């Protein structure tokens, strides 16, 4: 592959930024086109855990693992699991740290999404991102097959793209080049609630949730809370309801009594402390419908274009794997492209051929990984919104804890 194929990445989320960083380390010229006008435009979401063999591995190859470890929060792994009636089924906050260690840190430390994005943004060469570039449409070049022309909402165009990477999320403008499949409503709506500076503003709420996350899963409903490194806390009061529920349930989401109405109508039989969590997370309220792509979505490889992350395999958050899978996508695609650029054999054939072979190899593994994780996520959705959801989650953690304690005891016995 020559040094100058024209690469365009659509979207400056974790997947697109990770890919860009990995490719720039191997001297690929590229441009990211991002619809938002600047990096400060909107809140980037809550907190997430990066897995050693997915998100952390991508950061390691990108030379950013130490920076991640500097900002990550191992204590954020702590889980508190509750039954709807307020009974505590599991609480890491009252135990010494016990989870497996990796890279000298806890296995899946949390990091705020905005912090992860800043680490990736700051690692890129100046001018890599063109902000305020909302993609309107893509057309394959009429004269040269496998090259693409992009049109943007500001009236500009970019011509002759050799590799177009759609990392543009749920409503990807690149996806229609590869498949007619579209996201569909997953049956769950989550009302997102924020408590800013929770320890100073509401010490009870901070203490109740603990250092990491608190979960209550029940038939057709859930309450989930996450600590953030910024000092804020996010809660999600989620319900299994039809797609039009937000508009037709009768709750005015901008009214002062929206939380009270939500609790009264959908969580009234819950424990008083759980209800208090929803009522006192009072700084922001945003209803969010959950969308997903079909499990096992696939397509025939098309030369010069591919997808990463949510654009390829949008999942609900009920297995906590979305960003990890997206960053694994970026790592795999970068590896395939670098392999074709640097091998002796690859240098003997055209850029378009090299890119097509790299994309085909990447998509074969990516689609397989996507199907496995989408199935896991669907299983999580069904489990979380079942009557035994909390017991199953607590039981899974208990099993892991028992295994770790058994290993520890065995090690100590050998040592003595």
What's a quick, concise take on this entry?
This protein has 416 residues and is of the alpha/beta class. 37% of the residues lie in helices and 23% in strands.
Structure description:
The chain has 416 residues and is of the alpha/beta class. The protein has two domains: 7-73 and 109-183 and 294-384, FAD/NAD(P)-binding domain (3-Layer(bba) Sandwich); 74-108 and 184-292 and 387-416, D-Amino Acid Oxidase, Chain A, domain 2 (2-Layer Sandwich), CATH 3.30.9. It contains 13 helices and 19 strands. It has helices spanning 14-24, 55-61, 65-71, 113-123, 198-201, 203-209, 245-248, 258-266, 272-280, 310-313, 322-342, 351-384, 389-415, and strands spanning 7-10, 30-34, 47-49, 79-82, 88-91, 101-102, 105-106, 110-112, 129-131, 135-140, 148-152, 157-161, 163-166, 184-195, 213-218, 221-227, 233-240, 284-292, 305-307. It has a seven-stranded mixed beta sheet, sandwiched between helices. A five-stranded parallel beta sheet has the order 9-2-1-13-19. It has a three-stranded antiparallel beta sheet with strand order 10-11-12, with no helix packed on it. A hairpin with a 4-residue loop joins strand 11 (148-152) and strand 12. Helix 1 (14-24) packs parallel to helix 11 (322-342) and helix 2 (55-61) runs parallel beside helix 11. The protein starts with 6 loop residues before the first strand and ends with a helix. 42% of the residues are buried.
């Amino acid at each position: 592959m020559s040094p100058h194929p024209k690469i365009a990445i659509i979207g400056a989320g974790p997947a697109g930024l990770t890919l860009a960083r990995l490719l720039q380390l191997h001297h690929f010229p590229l441009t990211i086109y991002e619809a938002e006008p600047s990096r400060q435009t909107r809140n980037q979401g809550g907190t997430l855990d990066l897995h050693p063999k997915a998100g952390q591995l991508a950061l390691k190859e990108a030379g950013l693992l130490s920076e991640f470890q500097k900002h990550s929060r191992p204590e954020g792994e702590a889980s508190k699991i509750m039954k709807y009636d307020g009974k505590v089924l599991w609480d890491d906050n009252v135990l010494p740290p016990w989870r497996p260690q990796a890279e000298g840190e806890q296995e899946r430390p949390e990091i705020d999404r905005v912090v992860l994005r800043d680490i990736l943004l700051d690692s890129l060469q100046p001018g890599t991102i063109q902000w305020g570039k909302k993609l309107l449409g893509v057309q394959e070049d009429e004269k040269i097959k496998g090259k693409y022309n992009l049109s943007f909402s500001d009236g500009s165009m970019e011509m002759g793209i050799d590799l177009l990477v759609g990392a543009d999320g749920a409503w990807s403008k690149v996806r229609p080049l590869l498949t007619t499949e579209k996201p569909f409503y997953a049956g769950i709506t989550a009302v997102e609630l924020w408590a800013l500076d929770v320890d100073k503003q509401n010490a009870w709420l901070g203490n109740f949730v603990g250092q990491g996350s608190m979960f209550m899963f029940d038939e057709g409903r859930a309450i989930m809370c996450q600590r953030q490194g910024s000092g804020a806390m996010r809660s999600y009061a989620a319900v299994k309801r039809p797609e039009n529920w937000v508009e037709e349930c009768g709750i005015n989401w901008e009214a002062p009594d929206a939380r009270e109405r939500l609790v009264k109508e959908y969580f009234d039989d819950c424990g008083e402390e759980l209800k208090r969590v929803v009522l006192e997370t009072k700084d922001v309220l945003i209803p969010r419908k959950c969308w997903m792509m079909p499990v096992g979505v696939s397509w025939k490889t098309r030369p010069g274009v591919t997808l990463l992350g949510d654009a390829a395999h949008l999942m609900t958050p009920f297995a906590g794997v979305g960003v990890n899978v997206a960053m694994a996508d970026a790592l795999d695609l970068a590896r395939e492209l670098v392999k074709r650029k640097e091998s002796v054999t690859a240098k003997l054939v055209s850029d378009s051929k090299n890119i097509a072979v790299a994309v085909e190899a990447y998509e074969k593994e990516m689609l397989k990984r996507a199907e496995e994780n989408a199935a896991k996520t669907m299983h999580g959705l069904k489990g979380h919104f079942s009557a035994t959801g909390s017991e199953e989650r607590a039981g899974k953690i208990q099993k892991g804890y028992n295994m770790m304690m058994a290993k520890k005891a065995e090690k100590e016995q050998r040592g003595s």
